[in-house]
Every structure is written in structure tokens, then in C-alpha cells.
Amino acid sequence: MNTHEARLDALRKELACQQLDGFVIPISDEHMSEYVGAYAQRLGWLTGFGGSAGTAVVLRDEAAIFVDGRYTLQVREQVDGRLYSYQSVPQTSVAAWLGEHAPEGARIGYDAWLHGKGWADSVTAALKARNAKLVAVAQNPVDAIWQDRPAPSAAPALVHPDEYAGASAHEKRAEVAAWLTARGLDAAVISALDSVAWLLNMRGSDVDCTPVALSFVLAHADGTADLFIAPEKVSPELAQHLGNAVRVQDRAAFTPALAALAGKKVAVDPERAVAAVYAELEAAGAEAVSLTDPTVLPKACKNPVEQAGHRAAQARDGAAITRFLHWLSNTALHGTETELSAAAALRAEREKTGLLRDLSFDTISAAGPNGASPHYKVDEHTNRQIEPNSVYLVDSGGQYLDGTTDITRTVWIGPDAPPAEVKDRFTRVLKGHIALDQAVFPEGTVGSQLDSFARQFLWVAGLDYAHGTGHGVGSFLAVHEGPQRIAKAAGGQAGTGQPLLPGMILSNEPGYYKAGEYGIRIENLVLVEERAIPGAEGRFMGFETLTFAPIDRTLVEPALLLPHERDWWNTYHAKVRVLLAPQLEGADLAWLEAACAPL
């Protein structure tokens, strides 16, 4: 099965053997992770799609692949349109599509360990119109035909020292125990990998770019916990760190442990726990209470130690970015560099710090028209030369013990001046970035209420971008962390979602994308902080900028900047110089000085 057409044909034959009329294949794992290990890359293996979010539905006579606006271009480049129809989310959904396309009386299979309960309920409801059923499979049919499927990672789990965590695992378990007791609950299922890592001050390398270990936790109201993890991953050091209050069991014992909770009231997060968890608890006679994972908000609101660590990581990372940008300004003019060589050069600069543990995601190194795909992923087949007189976009980040970074810079590769249109679009994106960075807002404000701050200067020119403006970021954890985000409200309902709280870290990343030509994005990370405003009637918040690296002045159209925006630019770059200059020398330092000169 060397072709995706052959794999699709084999899957259909397996569905027939399992007496199924269709099957749903998401990018997911047993933990509802955004980024998954190689063993869980079922959608990529089946279809060729390399994005981080998407779902396919395979019926006997047709198939479809569902992606959002980030992957509109990418899916058409990677997935054969003869085999799959392209479906855009949120304009449609798997449930809506199946409600129209499922055969009458069909049995549509799904793996209950890869989907949430809410998703399963919505699809079940949609299928009723076709007298069809959603059926949980005993064996995933993709796994049945994927003969060389990788095994889950066997890498050891690691202790994350308290000096970086800012609170001990004992203190965190006690906080969860108090939360359970206050709600009259016996236990909580902690299934999101970053939640397990945060709760136990444990990290790993089981998922590329995210330092987590494949495991589940049952946290109990008495402050103890059960950790379900492959035994070979537990070192004596980790066992000592966990202590007697954390019972370590084989990962395979998780399902029997759920079955043993008969008569108990158990908190389960419907957004982070798979449908199978609910099913096992229900079958056992336990009461599953749908509540947000109790670690989510404490994890999102970084403590002072984590905040300080993040500032240190950002300063280190900013110097690496600056050395790379200086290198790029010299070498790219010759037209000999490619997207892959540039990504490798940037990683090498981060590695020179001696503290890089991993990238925080696969670097988006995008030259010219490839930049028009917001989540473009370069490989040997798509690798493009970085040509003189073109736009180059690089979105990248690093994982350090003291923080997770994420930064995007868009640069003009000379020697000629950039076209007026490119400068106009870049400056509109910059104005939106500045407006969001300077936002001041009352307590209780949610990200959807701030999203238009970043879009307004594009909107007045009849322009927009098809992705969110900001996502949460972890502390040596997931580069995309909830529940905080800045994006258009679902269904246009402003005011829904998670209020922004002090200590939360978010990205500020407006952009603009012209299909077939170029992409523009400017991204810094910001920290929500309380603002003291004389005479304020209530509590107000604002943002502390965390990311410091030069923004390309060549792409700015100064005539479009108001005085306060020009002041922001000059103040920001003065801070960049103060923070980074002590880490640079020679030609790198001279380049920084020129890049940070006032407008």
C-alpha cells in the first residue's frame, strides 16, 4: 500500500469486514492532543495531509476531508481531490455532512478513544435523519491495515524541577483535592497530556515539540493520585519525585481503574477526555460529572517563577532570532538559500544557547507564495528557494526548561525596495499588532472582545485573515494552550469564552495572506497583567510584551503610522536593543543597532 489510493481501497475492504458503511478518521490520540505522536498519525498516513487539524470521513462510495481556513491551500496540495472532496470548517462539519451523505440505515464507525463525547452526540443526532447509527469500533480499522504503524514512544518520563515549576507537585495535588472536596466529588480524570505533566511536575518526549509523556492520571479528593504510564518510562529518579502519594500503574490498567469507580462521582472534562472515558464510567455505574479539568486555569495563569522563567527564555530566544535575521539579510540576497536551509540555520542558532530542549513546533519557513498558507509545513517536496525581491515569513519557537517561545517575523529579501502593496499590507498588520498590544480592558473581558482590535486596519481596506489572533502558551509545555484565546467568537456571539486573567500568556499574531503570492504575520507573546489606572472604577488589565526581536523596518510604510504607533515602534525597538545587545557581538551587534534605530 504505497499509494494513498491503495490505502483508501484497503480501508474500505476492512470496513466491509467489520460490517461498517463508513468510518471517521481524525487527527487525535487518546488524550485529545493537538499534536500527536507518530503512532497516532492515522489521517496523514491514510490521506497524505500533513496539517495539525483535520478529519476525514470514508464511506463506501465517497470520502471527504474537513479542514479549517488555515489549511485551505495545503489540503489541496497534499490530498488527492479524486479521492476526497474538500470540506471547509466551520462552514460545514462532519456531523452536518454525514447527515446529508450517510447511506440510509448506515453503520458509521468511530474510535471512541479518539473523539470527544460532545462530538459523538452531535454526529449521533445528525445521523438520525438517515436512520443511521454511530458505532464505536472494537478495533480501529485504520490500525488493522497500517502494517508498519510506529509503536508509541518508549522514551523515559522526566522530573521537571520545582525551581522552574514554581510550585511542588504536592501543592498542586492538594489544590486539586480541595477543588474536588468543595464540589462533593471523589476523583477527577486528568487525561490531557499537558495537564498530567503540569500536575505532577513531569515532562517527556513522546510527542514532537511538546515535552509530555503518554499517561493518564486519576486525582483523588484525599490528595493522592494514580498515574497510568508504561513501566519502562519510570526511572528511579521519577519514582522518588512522585513519592508514595502517587501510585504508579501500567498504562493498560487505566480502563480497569475506571471500571473500579462504581458508585463514585468523577469529574471529567468534556473538551479533553475522549468518549470512551464516559462510556467506561457509565458502564461501571459511576457518575461522570462534566467539568473543566481542574488543572487548566492554574496551568494557564503562570506563577511568578514561571513568568520570570519565560522572560529569561524569551531574551535568550530573541538573541538567537536576531543572529538568524542578520545571517538571512546577508545570505538570502544571493538566492542560494531555501526554506529548509533557513529553518536549519534558525534551529542552529537556538542550539547555540546550549539550553534548547526542542522546537516548540515545526518551523514555518515560507518563501513567497508558500507564505500564503498560514500553517505551511516545508518538506523536501515543497521546499522553495528564497528568492531576491520577495517576502519570506518564518514562524518558529523553542522549548527551554524555563519557557516556551513562539515568534513570527516577516522580512523583505532585497535588494530592491518592496512593492507599495506589500508595504501597505504589512503596515496594516503592524497597526493591528500595536493596537492589541496596547489594549486596556476591564476584568471579565474575553479574547473575542479584543479580536477586532487587531483586524480593524485590514477590515477598512476590505481585507481579513482566516485564523485566530492569539492562542495561549504553556510553560515548557504546549505551544498552544487553553482555555484563553483571542479569536472571532463562535457564531458571532461576543462575550463567550474564557476571561483573560493575570498570568496568562497569549500570542498576538495578526496577518494577511495573498494566495499565490505572499504571506505576512507579526507575532509576539504577551502576558496579561493588572493595570493600575488612577480613578479606575473597577479592575483593569493590559499586556506586558514578552517577545523582543527586530521587526523588519523595510516593510513599514511610515506615512500610515499615527504618532502613538510610531512611538510604540521606537519604544519597542529600544527595549529590544537593551535586552539583546549584551548577548551579541561584532557584526551581529552592529546589525541589531541598525535594525533598532528609531523610525
From TrEMBL:
Q: Domain named Peptidase M24 C-terminal: which ranges?
A: 540-599
Which one of the record's GO molecular function terms can you name?
A: metal ion binding
List, for all copies, the residue spans of the domain called Peptidase M24.
310-530
Query: InterPro entries attached here?
Result: Creatin/AminoP/Spt16_N, Creatinase/aminopeptidase-like, Creatinase_N, Pept_M24, Pept_M24B, Peptidase_M24_C, X-Pro_aminopeptidase_P
Query: Which cellular component terms (GO) are annotated to the entry?
Result: cytoplasm
CDD domains per the record? Answer: APP (cd01085)
Q: What UniProt keywords apply to this chain's record, in alphabetical order?
A: Aminopeptidase, Hydrolase, Metal-binding, Protease
Pinpoint the Creatinase N-terminal domain residues: 7-137
A Pfam family matched by this chain, by name?
A: Peptidase_M24
The record's SUPFAM superfamilies line, in alphabetical order, gives: Creatinase/aminopeptidase (SSF55920), Creatinase/prolidase N-terminal domain (SSF53092)
The UniProt entry's sequence similarity note says: Belongs to the peptidase M24B family.
Q: Which PANTHER family match?
A: XAA-PRO AMINOPEPTIDASE 1
Q: What is this protein called?
A: X-Pro aminopeptidase
- Species this protein is from: Novosphingobium fuchskuhlense
